[in-house]
Amino acid sequence: MNMGKETVYKTIAKDIAKDIEENYHPGDKLQSEAYYQKKYNVARMTITRALSYLVSTNTIYSVRNKGYFVMIKKDSRGNEIISFSQLCARNGIIVTNKLLGIETIKPDETIRKALNLQSDELVYKISRMRYGNGMPRVVEYAHVVKKYAEGLDKFNLEDNSLYEILSDFYGIIIDVQDYEYSAVNIKGANAKYLEVQSGSAILKTITTGYMKMGVIPIEYTVQYSPWSTTITLKRDNDIKQ
Question: Which CATH superfamily is domain 74-229 in?
Fold first, then answer.
């Protein structure tokens, strides 16, 4: 393989990425560093840099002492994943929630851009644990634009659907969603909430909800869940939380 010296690791990374696209599926384990070192006939450090580059571009992720795995890709609008509530209902699972907190915050840059907010605009941050038959299934952090839902923090968000509250009391119908899925190694409080070992690989789902047929972003939610709680299918616009 003829590669320029200064870009050798990026060239290898590009080649591995092409192989992933053609031959791998989300969650598949990649070959070992030793395998790629032999294949490309380069130093081990070069392979490490190539794989680290792919991690930085969200192409793959690493699990300590286990290797590298293919990242779950981002979906565009219209590709849908079953919600926690739908999945539980389909399987006869009783859903309960625990409100961890609700507060008014100034969003970080990522959330501000996703919700198309000015620098001085605020959001409600709603933190919840979601259980199925008493077992922890999802830890969820929902962010709702405050100017559209003043007083949202006064509602009982432990026993009621966020989307139903927005619809019934604020006239907000979330009719389009963007989804982004990725695998992450969960740590700290989130690992404790889900009762999994710190560093475990789980699914992270980011949902951006829009009203007015996808024109106005209203909600940005981050969820962490074990792999077994999520399956893919067509949802026919059933997007209640």
Answer: Chorismate lyase-like (3.40.1410.10)
